[in-house]
Write a structure and sequence with these properties.
83 residues; Non-ribosomal Peptide Synthetase Peptidyl Carrier Protein, Chain A; PP-bd_ACP; Acyl carrier protein
Length: 83
């Protein structure tokens, strides 16, 4: 899975977690919790959705690494590359 596909997957999952969000306006480097008013349950649902979409499990200790779109992409790319 290349970075473009990973980014599209992250945005798709984010759209499922927060369907009211205009994904075109999401700043990929800004914290999603602040930018989109996501709470801890939303981040948990994001982690679950990413796992379902990619097969990459995100343990709770790594949730801080997936709070931006860029962070999600980097985390998933590294995990996929190491398999």
């Amino acid at each position: 899975m290349d970075e473009t596909t990973i980014r599209a997957t992250v945005l798709r999952v984010l759209g499922e977690v927060a369907p009211e969000v205009d994904l075109a306006g999401v700043d990929p480097g800004e914290d999603l919790r602040d930018q989109l008013d996501l709470d801890s349950m939303d981040i948990l649902n994001l982690a679950i959705g990413l796992y379902q979409a990619t097969g990459v499990e995100v343990p709770e200790r790594d949730y801080v690494r997936i709070v931006t779109v860029d962070g999600c992409v980097a985390y998933l790319a590294a995990a996929i590359a190491s398999t």
